[in-house]
Design brief:
Layout: H1 4-14, H2 21-27, H3 31-36, H4 46-67, H5 73-84, H6 86-95, H7 106-110, H8 117-135, H9 137-147, H10 149-153, H11 163-171, E1 179-187, E2 192-199, E3 202-209, H12 212-227
Antiparallel strand pairs: 1-2, 2-3
Helix pairs in contact: 2-8, 4-5, 4-8, 6-8, 8-9, 11-12
């Protein structure tokens, strides 16, 4: 169950009061918990995550378009990708105290899923999907204006950050290198991709993300960390 303390924090810090508390509960319910506790009648967050992914992409795209008019299409796309990738949304979820509120089954709890970045990303998206259903886009925009948009304005998500390009430039300093991103696993709901980065036939790293592009960026970022 979502704690009373968390509900109070949503109210006092973000002025968010859910009209339908079941939506809030659903946003924090993992499928493992829902399967273990069918008597509660609470659905898992997967459909809310699907909706929240689209809601957040639209809201953030609109914000970038209106507030970064000096950037071209490619720069806006890279900036949005940096914001909505697994690392970004997981960081938001962590910062706002989401992990402690997630309802997990025993197996997932023991496996350390509460700190899994892809799960935190999903919950952040599900929360915004629930907020959209409960109060509309205006409420989502309000929440983002207090949380995500200030970080964007502070320059946290540089439009020039493109880990794949950075990695390619690093690896090809001394000549051509064969770089491949191979999909290892694809899950539909919640959407999650795992890719491996193969350089000249050797596996260098892996990455996960809510789509193939995000997973590739994570793999490239991980590889850069190893090489640097």
């Amino acid at each position: 169950m979502v704690s009373t303390k968390f509900i109070k924090r949503l109210d006092t810090k973000y002025k968010i009061r859910f009209n339908n508390p079941k939506l809030l509960e659903e946003a924090f319910t993992h499928s493992s918990y829902a399967n273990e506790h069918p008597e509660n009648g609470t659905r898992d967050y997967e459909k809310l995550e699907f909706l929240g992914d689209a809601v957040l992409e639209l809201a953030i795209s609109d914000y970038l378009y209106r507030n970064f008019r000096n950037l071209n299409e490619g720069e806006l796309t890279r900036m949005r990708s940096n914001i909505v990738d697994t690392e970004g949304f997981a960081e938001f979820a962590q910062k706002f105290g989401f992990p402690a509120e997630i309802n997990l089954g025993h197996g997932e709890e023991k496996a350390g899923a509460r700190s899994r970045k892809t799960l935190l990303e999903d919950v952040f998206e599900a929360f915004n999907g629930a907020l959209f259903l409960d109060q509309g886009m205006e409420a989502v925009e309000h929440f983002l204006s207090l949380t995500v948009y200030p970080l964007i304005d502070a320059g946290k998500f540089d439009a020039s950050r493109d880990y794949k390009t950075d990695l390619q430039e690093l690896l090809q300093q001394d000549g051509p290198v064969k770089i491949e991103y191979e999909v290892l696993k694809e899950e539909q709901l919640p959407s999650n991709f795992t890719v491996q980065l193969v350089v000249n036939g050797k596996v260098l790293s892996e990455g996960q993300g809510h789509n193939k592009k995000a997973a590739e960026q994570e793999a490239a970022k991980s590889a850069l960390g190893k090489l640097n």
